Amino acid sequence: MDSKQYTYRVMWSAEDNEYVGQCAEFPSLSWLDADQSKAFSGIVNVVAEVVADMISNNEKVPVPLSEKKYSGRFAVRVPSMVHQKLALEAAERGVSMNRLVSAKLAM
């Protein structure tokens, strides 16, 4: 497993006064550094070490998000008043509620 295939991000942490590197597939891991590129390389290296450890212990390694298949379908429960409001807005626009909600989520 190539740890570089995982989903990474680096953002500024005002609380720590440093950049924090994170990996979506390993939410409990992070790496702090004053240098943005070092925060990125730090989290990539930590994930590589954790993946190697998991493999050596015959543990299941998370699949990178980029390799997962998505159906494009998911169910959302909303309060009845929200449902009514969405249905009304969709009718007024002449579109299906599915199309309306999809457009709102894409914003």
UniProtKB/TrEMBL annotation:
InterPro entries: Ribbon_hlx_hlx, TTHA1013/TTHA0281-like, Uncharacterised_HicB. One of its GO terms (biological process) is regulation of DNA-templated transcription. It comes from the Bacteria. SUPFAM superfamilies: Ribbon-helix-helix, TTHA1013/TTHA0281-like. It holds the Pfam family HicB. This is HicB family protein. It comes from Acinetobacter parvus DSM 16617 = CIP 108168. The lineage of its organism: Bacteria, Pseudomonadati, Pseudomonadota, Gammaproteobacteria, Moraxellales.
